[in-house]
Amino acid sequence: MADKTRYSKLQIGLHWLIAVLILATWWLGDGMGRALRTRMQENLSGFDGNTWHVWLGTAVLLLVVIRMIVRWMQGAPAPIAGQPPLMEKAGTWGHRLLYLLMFLAPAMGAVTWYLKIRAVGDPHALVANALMIVALGHALIALYHHYFLKDATLRRMTRGTAD
Ligand code: HEM
Ligand code: HEM
Which alpha helices (H) appear in the chain, and where do they start and end? Predict the structure, then answer.
């Protein structure tokens, strides 16, 4: 990265797009148990019977894979200077957990739906709800940084570098 104090515009675009899509997918989860039963009973395959939950969730899965590749290629800016080491560690591990959950949640949904493995359905919903809780905590921490600690944490995820 050219500027090590901020994320790239691509990383920022993916972060916010994925956040909105995750929220929408979660919101549209109602009735998926019924949709899955219909898919099994009528022996539908491929994209037949896909709902908005499935389309948006599948988009999340693809975008998260792209995001992980971009992250691997471009890295992340160095932690904000002057933070206690414990806070820095919590940030690193919190972000790793978010990456894991935001990959696992749609991947498990896709296994349930496309491979018709019903047993993965409940764990999928559980992991998806865990993702929402961790993401909510993450958002509150970001706002705490911005409004109380008044550091650059939120700015580096809103004003990016060109690469
Ligand atoms: C970030 C992405 C996703 C989130 C946050 C999410 C969230 C949820 C939630 C909360 C439920 C439980 C809904 C309820 O019972 O009221 C659910 C169910 C379900 N989702 Fe997802 N989902 C995601 C991605 C996907 C994808 C990509 C697919 C399929 C390609 C999928 C397929 C399903 C199915 C089949 C169920 C019903 C499971 C069952 O009742 O056994 N989801 N999802
Ligand atoms: C579903 C919702 C969200 C998910 C899954 C998510 C996920 C992530 C992940 C994985 C990172 C680490 C980026 C990296 O190291 O490559 C990150 C960074 C960040 N996110 Fe989120 N995020 C979500 C919503 C939000 C919201 C609502 C806010 C603000 C209110 C926010 C603010 C930030 C900030 C400021 C950073 C940069 C932190 C730093 O540089 O230390 N995120 N997010």
Answer: 9-27, 32-41, 52-74, 85-114, 121-144
Distance, CA of 144 to chain centre: 20
Tell me what the mean pLDDT of segment 79-98 comes to: 93
**Cα distance between residue 101 and residue 103, in whole Å:** 5
Domain ranges of the chain: 9-157
Pocket test for ligand 1, best of 27, 32, 101, 133 (most atoms within 8 A of CB): 32
DSSP 78: P
Rg, the chain, Cα only: 18
Nearest to 113 by CA among 157, 159, 48: 48
Residues 38-58 have pLDDT tens digits of 999 999 999 999 999 999 999
